[in-house]
Amino acid sequence: MKLKGNHCRNKMERWLMSAFFLSLFLLKVSISECAAPYTFTSEPVSGLSTAVRDQLHQEGWCSMYDLCGARKDGKPLNCPKVVEAVTPTETFSHKIQSLCPTITGNVCCSEDQFDLLRQSVQQAVPFLVGCPACLRNFLDLYCELSCSPDQSLFVDVISTSREHGRELVDGIDFYITEEYGTQLFDSCKDVKFAAMNTRAMDFIGAGAKNYTDWLSFMGHRAGSYEAGSPYQINYKTNAVGDIRPLNTSVTPCWDSSLSCSCGDCPSATSCAEPLPPSDNKDEGCHVTLGSLQIGCLNLGMGILYVVILLGIVAWWIQSRKEHSNTTGQSDINEPLLVSTNVSPPVPGQGPEIEEAGKPEKIQDPTFIESSLSRWFRAQGTWTARHPGIVLFIAIVFMILLCIGLLQLQVETRPEKLWVSPGSEAAEEKAYFDSHLAPFYRIEQLILATIPSANESAPYIVTNQNLLLLFEIQAKVDALRVNVSNSSVSLQDICTKPTGSACATQSVLQYFKMDSSKFYDYQGSAHAEFCFEHASSAAQCLSAFEGPVEPGTVLGGFSGTNYTEATAFVITYPVENFVGESGDENEKAVAWEEAFIRLAKEELTAMVEGEGLTLAYSSENSIKAELERESTADVGTIAVSYLVMFVYISFILGDWVSPWYVTSKTMLGLAGVGIVALCVLGSIGLFSYFHVKSTLIIVEVIPFLVLAVGVDNMCILVHAVKRQANKDESVETRVGRALAEVGPSITLASLSEVLAFTVGIFTPMPACRVFSMFAAVAVLLDYLLQVTAFVALLTYDLKRAESGRVDCFPCIAVTAESNDVQAHEPGVLVKYMKDVHAPVLNLPAVKALVVALFTGLFLASIVLVPNLVPGLDQRVALPRDSYLQGYFGNITEHLRVGPPVYFVVRDYNYSTESNQTNLLCSISQCEPNSLLNEVSRAALVPDTSFIARPAASWLDDFLVWMSPDAFGCCRTFPDASYCPPDDQPPCCPEGDDYCSEGDTCKDCTTCFLRADLLEGRPTTEQFREKLPWFLEALPSADCAKGGHGAYSTSLDLNGYEDGVIKASEFRSYHTPLNKQTDYVDALRAAKDFTNRMSKSLGIEIFPYSVFYMFFEQYLDIWKTTGISLLLALAAVFFVNVFITTSVWTSCIVILTIAMIVIDLMGVMALWNIQLNAVSVVNLVMSIGIAVEFCVHITHSFAVSSGTRSERASKSLSTMGASVFSGITLTKFAGVLVLYFAKSEIFEVYYFRMYLALVILGALHGLIFLPVLLSLCGPNTMREAPPNRHAKQYLEVSRGAEEVTEPVT
After folding, report:
1. Is the whole model's pTM more than 0.85, yes or no?
2. 165 or 815, greater pLDDT
3. Rounded to whole angstroms, how far apart are CA atoms 1105 and 1085?
4. CB atoms closer than 10 angstroms to residue 953
């Protein structure tokens, strides 16, 4: 009779219960833990029989023989007969030899005993057949115990019982040597059980660590109607009297005759030793100086800085000598042109200007420079004469662009934002989803205890906490949502691998998710029992008929000390569907939203009332919270822009009496409106072409365009103010002002536009889309600045000069009130001219500036490699998000990593191919096969990030087909599939026990050994039996059935041709707690599969759910470098094209590069990670850095005098505009971002923008003028208008300086 029960008809229980039937007659292990040999504790009979008391211990004698009866639960028991070994018939002898080749001659077992032995061991064969040596040794152990002719030498009957008047064996001592026990255990300890990604020893030995634990576990006497040995077997090594312990030869797992695979026998000589654990990070180049170890980069930058310092000191000493030599002399070397009000000389006829005795030539202006100046003079004059037409055209044009906003679409899907269309990980995910199955959705709860002061957190596994968990589960089960007029519960959407029960991962599964069983199972004591026997005890199997590993449902423990856990981890896997519409998971998303509300409104209060904490998350949580974040700081951003607007309005005005006339609030408001229109117009234009916008565009581009626009507004307004001759018309002054600053505005704007345009070629979608929108927005801003804003400026000038009130132009003040004071240079202009520029011209200051900024630059180069790739999810979420606590709990409590799949494309299983042996990990597989290498990598998880061997459908399929696994692949006489004896129709459904019937008595194994080709199936055999395997239910008689465990592991479409398009082998990563862990795990998996693909000649790739989002960090440095270099190259070529001066362009690029590198150094110091957001900001920083540099450089190039004087003039002319237009404006706006609710704004916008503004101002207003004064380009003067030609000619011929009123 065979135990069946309702459990055994279901998949996973039958699969795992096979581990229990491994003792002498019904070899099923017990449900109890055995850490040491058991002693007989049941009530003995009145005494042992004379035969038992007087049993002999000598060769050729038996201690027990034949079957004399059975226990009350039907388990057969031996007769305690001390008899001489019997001679078997020839047929019986051959039968014995087929299973026990070491037993020859006489035997101590009857045919009934042997049939029961064979029937029982067949349940252990599927676990061990992949390692022939282990299986052989395991069978030999029970063959010797059951049938050895010298049984009495090592078996002693110590207890008997009586049933129906017959004496039956109830307990024995089985003597073995320590050497034999150790060798037996060593041959089997590493054998894998692929379906569960674990070792077979976890099933047949309850995770035993040595032979005593293993044998004690198998020898424990099972209770009534429980799986296990029918009587107690005590394994002993301390022999007494005539006892001679069993010490037969044991075949090592590496023996060539019965060799096991490297995965099952890592000690085999053919198996390479795993690499020792080492730090996964590349330490890079180092130089050892005594006891000090210095990085090569650090040392190189240090040496370079010392050399530069020496050069600076040498220059300073030389400059002092030259200065002392010229002391007391008249200023005969002063250039003739000292006033910024004098127009440029005629091209090609400029004088040589001496500086410290060194002549400097005046370059002819370039054709483009001259053309731009003439164009802007004409265009500015025309615009000032027709402002209404210009504004009308501009407004109509922008309205047409903004109409595209009606088709606006915002992309919020992370995979579309951060994963490039050609991403390898994205393609692999699509391949996995289409050929195998999408990874399920995850809903999760984490209950944790709270540590008290100076004490660790208390353990969570208590009766009270388990009952609380049942209450929570009841509320989750009762949760219903209405979707399309249908009620949806967890039961409707959850993953169900074996039937009707959800595969919920919870400690409650040890109670079958049934609260009524809590007290029946002894509460928390049963849970603690299941922590040690999760894979080997029937009572611990889940409601979905499978085992639940304690490491997945508990948290906060160390090693395998599960009872010390401080957290419950409850995971609800939900079916996932992949499609383009995004509505495929409508029901799941609706239920997830209700689940989060339930956790917030009810579950949290329940848990906190019991002194615990609750963290929770759903698959949709991150997306929902990111969308909430996008609106969480609308107020903060609005305040930031309001502050900048107020400042702009203030800085544009003169604020002299009467201030209500000279202020320019309306002009500032109009300027901000232009910026807004540029952003909206850019978005509208791309919306016409169905290019989706992103939240980062709304967050970053207004800041960028405002920085560029405000700077241009300040430059234009200040240029007009410098044209203070009221004898000229407004139109003439506006035209001259635009001619003065138009070329530099054009140079800066085109540099920015091209810098962003080249960003379109970066692979990251978020960066690419940002670059597209930014380029168009800056271009629109430039066009509107030189047209619409000039028109508005003209209106404002006429308003002020006519005495009309700002903001209320219809109100005109009286003549007395309109007595506007003459334009005086502002405070900033005076500061730049009288303080800032003179100080920077001091030689000592120049030396100090170059030394400090060079040191900062070199230090930043040293810091840049310390930037950490990644984006902490907690930073990306609002500070008040419930996910903040969830991610903290994940890091603190989880002890298992995400699953990783090794996917094989186009596996050729045909006979002609050797790919089967290149993939598998059982006997006869190649030592360097894929699965052997995975097992080897799992031995060094610190570097491989692989936690355990892979679950292998291929290994289990080969074992399932093996004739040695005689309970698995079987056929009826008509060649149809015959299931194991404990499954229908062999065992009738509804019976608790399977009686020996006639239905399957004629079933035979699918193949004989002779039918296989070198132990492997032929192409036809493989093709025919694979569907059988995938439909076969696991059971006690055959644990290798593939249904459920491997149902989605293969793509059988077209497999009849001998090629399986896709198949996967599942393992797990180690716990990944930091962003760098995820990146390193992905890199290690990629490196591993690349190496295996190259070694085996088979296409293999790794897949895990997070790979697609972290792949960008594998190449983030490359992406960053390409983006920045392309942007810098664009700026360089625009400067060369317009100025035709390579040297000028080099100075601009050097300064911009220093700003960007210094910004990256600040990022390293301020813990700002390198990711898509920071890369976008870095690209944007080049655009803003252009504003800090180009205007001053251009002003320097067209100024006259010595280099120092030209640097001073450029600061006087443009310094105030740059400082007020960019620095103070951005500084005021950035400070507000510090108060943002979302940490991502505080980290990636406040910190980076603040650093950018400060670094840009320091470099643009301090370092760049000093650099220009030392090695700036020659002056480049523009051709004058005809009416001033004579004046310039005279100047160029060395005449006395001719001046005219300031214009």
Report:
1. no
2. 165
3. 13
4. 25
